[in-house]
């Protein structure tokens, strides 16, 4: 299974390399080769218990698929913005690609360094790949860009040491690279933009995303340190939690956002949300869907109390939420992508805040949330945090957040790139859902080395092709320019990756589909 997963990842890397064919795509290829070898060292460390931190069990290290996401995103973003003639974002794509490669190399060197005896061949490969990448960076990046890449690496190192210690068994090494690398990059971007504020420069919704992500992470770190010295389950601690949340929100996050957008954040947000009648209709519709999702949770818990034998929700039951999230995102993508962007940021902040309430047992809802959500746990929620619903939201939202709007003057990219914002809907909302439902109910032929079925994968590919046809009918901004063969190949590759990967598919699959469609 690991070898097939590696072949599929190499397929994506080679496809991007063939489409781009420059020094950075060659570097990505070198990085993929060395990550393939180092992945086996990480897997061996996890099996023998020799890793520095406790990682999620029942999965391989995932180093190869995770190592390639950020570099490939940077490469395809650079290529798209170069074609559009937007120099600023072309340079930004180069910084993203360089940062991703350096973070992946750091994890590789870490694994090689703690493996005993020292693997000579892997060391040589890592050294060659590292030399190629550093040589390319030396001749491609300015001094300020090199400093920016090193800043992200420094933040990543410290953030990894803190969060992997505080949250054992929540991530595999690959997932930690993706999540903590992303948070490190966001934090560095926020610091950089806060120090160089120019009025009228930058979109307020981008600043809103940066501040929201950094704000909830800092909030979690603050309360984790605080509750080492206090019992978080008492009423006094709970009152202190709510009070300090308000203080940090109104005293730190709001002024920070005000400095970036030069207007009152609350007034800006209210004006933005209720700007048009379409937005009002969408907000009412989304509120109804949110209430429906809550209804599913309460109904399933009521069934659990009456059926003592049933302790966990079935796969099909968990996929109800995938259907609800598709029904949420598709109208937003068709009618108002900016509103969807902001609403997804608000949802992420609310989800993470509620997870803090559950994890710290904050009264009055902490214990209730623990009871309600325990029904929907699966083997991937082996750590102290429940992250699968947050990963689902991220998987649907990241293609919307990472879409290079400035490099798409008409609001959409040409050809297959027009489907980039729909990557989460196609890969997770349609493909993963249909594969799970049909595979678990009708599947008989299993892919070698996995529990996934041939029938589930084929049905998922077929369902995504139908979804693309429906998008073409209902979204007039999408024009594929006869790039149907590339779309079919992209969907097929990602669906096969879903069958073979042991990483969090809700996070990985949309990003790989986005890379393929942007390439």
From TrEMBL:
<dbReference type="GO" id="GO:0004168">
    <property type="term" value="F:dolichol kinase activity"/>
</dbReference>
<comment type="similarity">
    <text>Belongs to the polyprenol kinase family.</text>
</comment>
<feature type="transmembrane region" description="Helical">
    <location>
        <begin position="149"/>
        <end position="167"/>
    </location>
</feature>
<feature type="transmembrane region" description="Helical">
    <location>
        <begin position="7"/>
        <end position="37"/>
    </location>
</feature>
<feature type="transmembrane region" description="Helical">
    <location>
        <begin position="278"/>
        <end position="299"/>
    </location>
</feature>
<feature type="transmembrane region" description="Helical">
    <location>
        <begin position="57"/>
        <end position="76"/>
    </location>
</feature>
<feature type="transmembrane region" description="Helical">
    <location>
        <begin position="486"/>
        <end position="513"/>
    </location>
</feature>
<feature type="transmembrane region" description="Helical">
    <location>
        <begin position="240"/>
        <end position="258"/>
    </location>
</feature>
<feature type="transmembrane region" description="Helical">
    <location>
        <begin position="454"/>
        <end position="474"/>
    </location>
</feature>
<keyword id="KW-0812">Transmembrane</keyword>
<feature type="transmembrane region" description="Helical">
    <location>
        <begin position="341"/>
        <end position="361"/>
    </location>
</feature>
<feature type="transmembrane region" description="Helical">
    <location>
        <begin position="88"/>
        <end position="112"/>
    </location>
</feature>
<dbReference type="GO" id="GO:0043048">
    <property type="term" value="P:dolichyl monophosphate biosynthetic process"/>
</dbReference>
<keyword id="KW-0256">Endoplasmic reticulum</keyword>
<dbReference type="InterPro" id="IPR032974">
    <property type="entry name" value="Polypren_kinase"/>
</dbReference>
<keyword id="KW-0472">Membrane</keyword>
<feature type="transmembrane region" description="Helical">
    <location>
        <begin position="382"/>
        <end position="402"/>
    </location>
</feature>
<keyword id="KW-0418">Kinase</keyword>
<protein>
    <recommendedName>
        <fullName>dolichol kinase</fullName>
        <ecNumber>2.7.1.108</ecNumber>
    </recommendedName>
</protein>
<feature type="transmembrane region" description="Helical">
    <location>
        <begin position="118"/>
        <end position="137"/>
    </location>
</feature>
<feature type="transmembrane region" description="Helical">
    <location>
        <begin position="207"/>
        <end position="228"/>
    </location>
</feature>
<keyword id="KW-0808">Transferase</keyword>
<keyword id="KW-1133">Transmembrane helix</keyword>
<feature type="transmembrane region" description="Helical">
    <location>
        <begin position="320"/>
        <end position="335"/>
    </location>
</feature>
<dbReference type="GO" id="GO:0005789">
    <property type="term" value="C:endoplasmic reticulum membrane"/>
</dbReference>
<feature type="transmembrane region" description="Helical">
    <location>
        <begin position="422"/>
        <end position="442"/>
    </location>
</feature>
